[in-house]
Amino acid sequence: MSLGLVIWFWTKIRPLYVITLLIILAILFITTAQIRVINQWFGLNQSTIINIRRMAIWLFLYAFALLIYLLFDSTHRNPSGSNIEISPKSNIEIAENLKKQGRKILSDKGRYGLDEAIQKFEEAQKYAKQDGAISYYIGWLKDLNYSIFKKGECQNPSERYADTLRLFDENPPKNDIEREMVIEKGHYFTNKEHRNGGHDRAIDIYNKYILKKDDYDISNPVTYLALVSRGMANFWKGKYELSGDDFEKALAEEPSNQVVYNRGSVYAMYAYARGDYSEAITWYKAAIYGGEVQLKNGKIIKVSGESDLDEERRDLGFALLLDKKSKRDPKDRYTEALGEFNEAIEINKNNHNNNGDSINYYAYVGKG
């Protein structure tokens, strides 16, 4: 009967109240058994007094057992505060499942799922507070939410990703997905803080987490991307020699139309002072129409070309227009430059929808 009462109290009343009530009853029973006046008043015999003392001992034992259980249970509650016991392993599993749900929302709903996805990742963070990837997702999605809908707070990347960088310091990126997040943070730094040391910050995190003292595997696609990204950060800093070295390392490993274009842009910056854009034009045309180019180490690489990128067409047009040392008839150069500019304008129109968004936006949002 007493066990039934304890179970009933446990389900109806908060545990601490149950323990307090049990202790009070136990004290009352002991007091009753010890005071002779009360014994005489109620007409209690020796046998009844012994039974009351036994009940008091049982109540104390129940109270002690409940107290131990409560203390143990409090260290195994889940972040929402319920009484379900959750092991560290299941915490991780729950967090991973919530991350998958968040990514699926982004894949299914695109920009219109940002608020819902943020909620999923913030919920996941309750179960895995030391997970730098979750912190990154939250910062990245809040950036998108502000950029697109002006929702939330406008923060620079150094503030937005401060926790992510701290967590990556404590637990360095352990897989390619997390290392790619480092690259994305670098892109934010270079795009949004370029006037306030953003390029330097980007280079620092590339070197710290991926490109460590030249001891890295360029054949890994994420490492390759980090190398090219570092090259671009150096390019925007005006460190053209360092930038060109990174692009050439990448091209020696895997020829790429985009990186050939980047290398051509380095040559274009050198050409500005000399007025000789012939080398930049060669590299730009290879990036657009395909062809062979020679690296500084003498290696010849071949790329297929990609004609539907507006920036390459635009920059080729400028290079043709500014190539003062060319022996070609200026009229022919201007005509070719005009053709490239017109192509660039047309491609730019086709690459965006009626809202002005890139047609690749939803694929970008669904990444990861």
TrEMBL record:
Record field: transmembrane: 16-35, 55-72
TPR-type repeats, residues: 224-257
This protein's record includes keyword Transmembrane helix: yes
Entry keyword set: Hydrolase, Membrane, Repeat, TPR repeat, Transmembrane, Transmembrane helix
InterPro entries: TPR-like_helical_dom_sf (IPR011990), TPR_rpt (IPR019734), Ycf3 (IPR050498)
An MF annotation (GO) of this entry: hydrolase activity
Top enzyme category: hydrolase
RNA-binding among keywords: no
Domain of life: Bacteria
Assigned EC number: 3.6.3.4
Name of protein: Type cbb3 cytochrome oxidase biogenesis protein CcoI Copper-translocating P-type ATPase
Source species: Crocosphaera watsonii WH 0401
